[in-house]
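Teaching assistant's notes for section 4

Start the section by putting this record on the projector. Ask students to predict, before seeing the second block, whether DUF333 domain-containing protein will look compact or extended. Collect guesses on the board.
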Amino acid sequence: MIRKAFLGFLGIVFIVLVVIFGVRLFSGEDNRNGQQLPAQKDLTETAIANPASKNCEDKGGKIVFLNETSGQLGICQFTDGSECEEWQFYRGECKKGQFTSADTSHAYSGVITKINGRFSFKDSLGITYTLEIPANVSLELQERLSAEAFSAGIVTLVAAETPPLSKNLILKSFQEK
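Reveal the predicted structure now:
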């Protein structure tokens, strides 16, 4: 009877040791000081590349990301000093060797307001920007903007946040809904 109890006890100890060893084996590695090392990334994992970024790199460019309030914007920079917004380059709208600053304009959807003669723009995420109107904008467009500011209707405008993360939008164009 004692022998059966002893063998049962040894069986339980063996199972506990196997479980502890298994957990230790499949957990992260330790260095010599007993500290946990970060898990290594699985190099067999595949990811789908952004076609605009891949196109830039395939054609000799380097991708640089600008962080803006509304998200990230990829700029394709070339060794000759020229640059293009990555999707414009992908669509063939700008080329390597064109020495103009990358057009970082993109669409924003929201509401235009005008307070004390200054335009503001509140996007669909609730972020409020100062909307700067370039000096060369026609009087007709300025009047349309003013009318839109009083209607409080949703518009889509194309603008660049300059400089990035500044909450200043430089208007390029807009479209009423």
